Here is the input.
Amino acid sequence: MVMPPSLPTPRSPWTSISPLILLSWKTIYRRGPGMDRQQLEAFDARWFSWLSLAGRRPGLRRLAILLAHSGDSWFWLLALAILALTGDQAMRIWAYRLGGAILGLALLVLTIKLVVRRQRPDGQWGAIYRKSDPHSFPSGHAARAVLLAVLALGLGPVWLAAVLLPWAPLVGLARIAMGLHYPTDVLAGAAIGLAAGLITLLIF
Here is the structure.
C-alpha cells in the first residue's frame, strides 16, 4: 500500500518573518533602496535633528515624555493581566491574545536588536531605557504601538481602535523627540508591528 507523503511540520509565523526582517535591514540600511548608506544616515540625522527640537519645548516635551512612556510593555502587560483576572471569558481570551502577541513581538524585536546592535543616539533623557537596552534598531515601542492598534482594529473594541490608531504614530514620534531613536528605527519598528499584527489576526 502506497502511503501518502507526510506533510511538513508547520512553521511558526514569528520564525518565518525574522529572516525577512533581517534581510530588509541589510537591504535598506547597508545599501538602501535608491540611496546609499551615507544618504540614509543623512536622512536619519536631518529628521532626528528636526524632530528632537520638539523635546526641547516645555509643553511639547511634557507631552512627548507621556507618549514615550505610554508604550512601555510593563504597562500594557499589567493592564491585560488585570483584565484577564477580572473580566469574563471573552475578555480573558482577548487579553491572552494581546498579551501573547506582545510577548512574541518583544522576543522578535530583541533578537533583531542583538543581531543589528545599532547604538541609541547620544542623549540624557531615558536613562532606564539606555541602561536596560542600549540598542535602538528597531524601536520596540513603535512596533508594540502599531501591533496594538492593528489588533484593536481587527479584534475590537471599536472605541479602542479609534484611540490607538492616532496614538501609535505619536509614540514613535515621541521616542525620536526624546532622543531615544533615529527615524529609521521607528519606521522599521512600525513595519514589524504591522506585520506582526496582521499575522496575529490570521492566527486568531
About this structure: The radius of gyration is 19 Å. The mean pLDDT is 81. The chain has one domain: 36-203. The first helix runs from residue 13 to 31.
